[in-house]
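Tokens in:
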């Protein structure tokens, strides 16, 4: 099983996870006339497939107890359930986040949801597995929160950001953020960690990723079907649209899942070295990556005023500072 043996390698994997988490949505922007609820089925299949592929390659080097198959055979059933529950929670949070963006716009939904998720995830994960310097970790989290607020300010300064904010959209953002921050503690409990000198948790990072993505895929039959019938935005949608969609739309959905799933595997593998709280915090730098795509690929800030550009520049500064502080917290 491949795992990082130095902070530099672990940090590189965590930054890669942030890039993946901030980039997968580009695949959805590439499809036309394909509802997100339908796209999400392809995406969910993609995240599960890539976790299997990486598990049977990177996670299967050697034939020791830590290799994927041996780890799964020896894993505690309770830890498997915890990982799958974490995946189901993530899936619901992600669906709510997309609905909130549709209702309130990215300027409000993304900073509120991801900001809450970052705080909830890091604090609860660190409480369960207190690894790293708490002061530096707290400072890094604060900088990341400031960065996502500045990100929202930058989008809000755009002339096109004129959507009204309803009570329903704010509640959706808050619920999404809390849920998005709760899958990490489940993974902390499922993966090996020390409590009062006793090592608990039996899932290695590759097995944990497989069961988390399996939980996400299976939960689509609950969450996604519900939102297809009772969407928070738009009219109900049927499976007919899924089967009538072009192959390119399905391919982009699976590719989006591959990108996000790669980020998840890398994040959990890095957590094996740094602890989940630190890897999760750096992985949640994804809004910075998404903003870069928005600026350079989708030209979302074309013609933006000076205020938007200042907010954007400050956001990058605070996110870089957050990454440095959280990385140093491991020392």
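Residues out:
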């Amino acid at each position: 099983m491949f795992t990082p043996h130095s902070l530099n390698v672990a940090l590189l994997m965590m930054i890669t996870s942030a890039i993946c988490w901030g980039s997968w949505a580009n695949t959805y922007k590439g499809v036309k006339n394909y509802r997100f609820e339908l796209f999400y089925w392809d995406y969910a299949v993609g995240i599960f497939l890539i976790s299997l592929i990486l598990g049977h390659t990177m996670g299967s080097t050697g034939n020791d107890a830590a290799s994927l198959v041996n780890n799964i055979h020896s894993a505690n059933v309770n830890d498997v359930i915890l990982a799958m529950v974490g995946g189901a929670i993530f899936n619901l949070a992600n669906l709510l986040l997309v609905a909130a963006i549709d209702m309130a716009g990215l300027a409000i939904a993304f900073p509120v949801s991801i900001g809450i998720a970052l705080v909830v995830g890091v604090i609860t994960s660190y409480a369960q597995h207190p690894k790293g310097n708490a002061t530096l970790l707290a400072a890094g989290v604060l900088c990341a929160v400031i960065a996502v607020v500045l990100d929202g300010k930058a989008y809000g300064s755009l002339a096109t950001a004129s959507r009204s904010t309803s009570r329903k959209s704010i509640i959706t953002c808050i619920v999404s953020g809390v849920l998005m921050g709760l899958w990490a503690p489940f993974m902390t409990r499922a993966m090996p960690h020390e409590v009062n000198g006793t090592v608990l948790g039996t899932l290695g990072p590759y097995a944990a990723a497989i069961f988390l993505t399996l939980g996400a895929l299976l939960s689509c039959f609950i969450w996604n079907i519900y939102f297809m019938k009772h969407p928070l935005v738009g009219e109900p949608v049927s499976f007919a649209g899924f089967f009538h969609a072009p192959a390119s739309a399905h391919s982009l959905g699976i590719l989006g899942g591959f990108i996000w799933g790669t980020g998840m595997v890398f994040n959990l593998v890095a957590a094996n070295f740094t602890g989940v709280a630190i890897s999760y915090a750096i992985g949640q730098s994804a809004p910075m990556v998404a903003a870069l795509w928005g600026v350079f690929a989708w030209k979302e800030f074309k013609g933006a005023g000076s205020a938007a550009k200042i907010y954007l520049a400050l956001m990058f500064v605070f996110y870089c500072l957050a990454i440095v502080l959280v990385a140093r917290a491991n020392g």
